[in-house]
Amino acid sequence: MKAMDLHCENKTVIMIVHNPIKHDRMKHVEVDRFFIRENIDKGCISFPFVKSEDQLADILTKGVCGRIFNDMIDKLGMIDIYAPS
Predict the structure, then answer these.
(1) Cβ-proximal residues to 75 (8 Å cutoff; 6+ apart), any chain
(2) Would the pLDDT of 28 be above 60?
(3) How far are the Cα atoms of 35, 63, 64, 72, 81 from residue 41, in angstroms, in the given order?
(4) Could you tell me which residues are beta bridge partners of residue 49?
(5) pTM of the model
(6) Who has greater pLDDT, 67 or 13?
(7) pLDDT of residue 22
């Protein structure tokens, strides 16, 4: 069975998930962290790093420059319904 890739752009989150030591500041994500850690140990999930500019969800959550915005819109297959045809 191939591990499912859970892409993440946050290196701190990746380090927390791979570190078995309890992090007191992360109480609000404790259940999720243990679930992810358990599945990483089983080989069900891998946690590759994704550069921020390759993270497609960023156009929905962050202000990005025009070039990155247009590249992501193309990757998502979105079209401008108001563009002249």
Answers:
(1) 56
(2) no
(3) 10, 36, 35, 33, 46
(4) 8
(5) 0.45
(6) 67
(7) 59
How many domains are there within the chain?
A: 2
Q: What is the tally of helices (H) and strands (E) in the chain?
A: 4, 2
Based on C-alpha coordinates, what's the Rg of the chain?
Answer: 17
For 74, the domain range is: 51-84
- In a shared domain, residues 37 and 68: no
- Rounded to whole angstroms, the Cα distance separating 81 from 85 reads 9
The one-letter amino acid at 10? N
- Angstrom CA distances, 4 to 24, 47, 51, 84, stand at 28, 9, 18, 41
Query: pLDDT confidence of 27, banded at 50, 70, 90?
Result: low
